[in-house]
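Here's what a typical entry looks like (GntR family transcriptional regulator):
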Amino acid sequence: MAERTTVTMPDEAARRIAPPPSMARLAADAVRKMILTGELQPGDRVVENQLTHQLGVSRPPLREALRVLEQEGLLVQQPRRGVIVVPINLHDVYEIFTLRDQLERMAVELGVPVRSPDRLERCRAALRDLEDAARAGDAATVTDRAFDFHLAVVGLAGHRRLEESYRSLSLQMRLCMGMNQRARVAGEGLWGIVERHRAILATLERGNPQEVLEMLTDHGQHTFVLELGHSLSGRSAEAEAWLERLGRSRSDTALGLEAPRS
C-alpha cells in the first residue's frame, strides 16, 4: 500500500497577501512627493484637472488623496482659491527650525556618549541608505534618508517621546526644505550631503557631545535658511532676530571663530 503524503497547509498569516495600494494612496504619495521636492511650492493652487491627467487617475481617488494630505497638514482649503499647498512664512520657518535645533540638542546631551551599540548601528544603517540614494542620483530620496539619519541621531537618547516629537516635525521641515531643494542640491551636490553626514557619524563614534553639537550647528541648514528667509513674508521680531543671529554665526564660521548654537 502506497504511503500517504501529508500536505501541510500554510497558516492563515502566511496565506495572507498584502493588497495592492489603492489609487488614492498612490495619488497621495505622488502629490506628497511633488510638495516635498518643491515641484509644488507653498501657496501654489492644486489644480485637479491638471493632476488627473498628470497622474492618470480619476477625480474620486484624487480628491480622497487630497483629503489625506489636508489631514497631514500639507494642503489647506482657501476661500475662492480652492485647495492650496499650505503657505509657509518666515515666522513658521523660525519656529520649525529652532524647535528642531533644541530637540537635537536635548537628544545629544542625553544620548552621547552612546550607551547602546544598537542605537549607533541605526545611525550607520541610515547613512548606508543615504549613500545608496546618492548613488542612484535620487535627490528626493536623499532628502528623505537625511531626515532618517537625523531621526536616528535623536534616537540615541532612548527617549521615545523626544523621538516622537522630532518625527512630528518631519513633514514641516521637509516642506521648508522643498522650497529651495534644487538650489541646495545644486550648490552642494548629493555626495556633499553624504559627506556631511559621514562627518557627523564619525563625531558620534568619538563620543564627545560638545563636538557633536558643534557639528550639527555647522551642518544645520543655516545658509539655506538665510537665502530663503529674505524672500518670505510673515516677518516677526523673533524671526528677524533669529535671522540676524544666523548671519553672525555664518560670518564667525567663515572667519574661523566659534559660533554659538542658534
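DSSP finds 14 helices and two strands in the chain.

More examples are in the samples folder.
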